[in-house]
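User: Please write out a complete single-protein record containing the residue sequence and its fold in token form, without commentary.

AI:
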Amino acid sequence: MTGVKTGSQSKAALVRVMIWGSALAAGFATGSLQALQPDFSFRVSFNTFIAFTLGSTLIYLYWKVLLNPSKNPRQKRLRWAASILLLLGGIAGFLYPLKFIAPNNFHEVTLGLLAAFAGLSVIALMLLICKRFLDKDSGE
């Protein structure tokens, strides 16, 4: 039966897609942030390639830490630390372009960001409620 994958083969393929897909996305995000200019244009340089490589490598290493099967407490602390650093990096990458906003527009941009944060928080809460409902339903 060629073409049919077992559960472990499918899981391994999914993990590869998760790792490489998110590594490429992080590379493009860091490269874009590096190339961003004050007039909101992009100037691609050798530093952009370095930023792409660095972002991709960091996310690749993050997944390796996160997916390590070790159960020892040191590994658990490392997972938490890596996840917190990833969260802080994501927030920094989201807020970095704000340094190019004119001071007279800052209030409107801040209101827009708060509205977006509130909307995304509501969606995250709804997804969490759905997950708990589905977990409860599958447990019965």
Remarks:
- The first helix runs from residue 7 to 35.
- The two ends are 35 Å apart (CA to CA).
- The chain has a mean pLDDT of 90.
